[in-house]
Here is the input.
Amino acid sequence: MAEEKIQKLIKLRSSIKSKVTILNKYVKVLQSGGPPSDLQLLDLEGRFKKFDALYAQYDELQSQIEVLSDDSDTQELEREEFEGQYYSLAAAARSVLGARPARQYEQPLNRSLSSYEYVSLQQTGGKNLAKATVNKCMRCFRYRAETVQPIMGQLPASRTELEFPFLHCNVDYAGSVKACHIELVTALSSEAYIAALNRFVSRRGKPKSITSDNGSNFIGASNELAQFLLQSELEGQMAQEGIEFKFIPAFTPHFNGLDF
Here is the structure.
């Protein structure tokens, strides 16, 4: 009676082992080829859900066989062999299934998976999978690119002197500056410019140098302003006042915000 029951249990156990063998062959086919398609992954996911419940069925049958069988050593080896095959196949199947979630997370978010997401996916070797997925993504490569940070040059001497404000100053008509003193002039003439300078000196003190736009970036209607700035009499009047009147280099309007 006991022998007949053991034979029935062994047949049921064999059917479970055959299902494991079939899934093992299917996973090897997916691993040997290229990246599995979404349809193949969906099919594997359905099979894996059924496979996940096989161990409980096997454990119940094997426990009954071990109780009824006289050869406990053989049954113990049988259990160890099945468990080794089962867990190895589970790890391989999860590795194949983990490739799809990694791509799904990486593409919209442009990042790798977090540790919490590894746990939720039950992914073995999830860190390596995330690195491989991100490294193969061209969009991620572009986002990780670092811009070149230019090295700042040494500050000029005029920027480090402990003197009163506006000792070294720049002048520009609607140019780019970091700090400015605004004076309104009535005309593009030397007299109007000197009047504006006198108002500036009475408010801020007499500067040591004034740096002006050289006029090379003016076009069209602004040519008149360029000609005015380049008048030799303007520089001479500045020299009489003890002020050095300088021009920025050609095609460098950004210099008017920095001393050089």
Summary: Residues 105-122, 217-222 have pLDDT under 50 and may be disordered. The radius of gyration is 41 Å. The chain has ten helices and three strands. The chain has two domains: 2-144, 157-257.
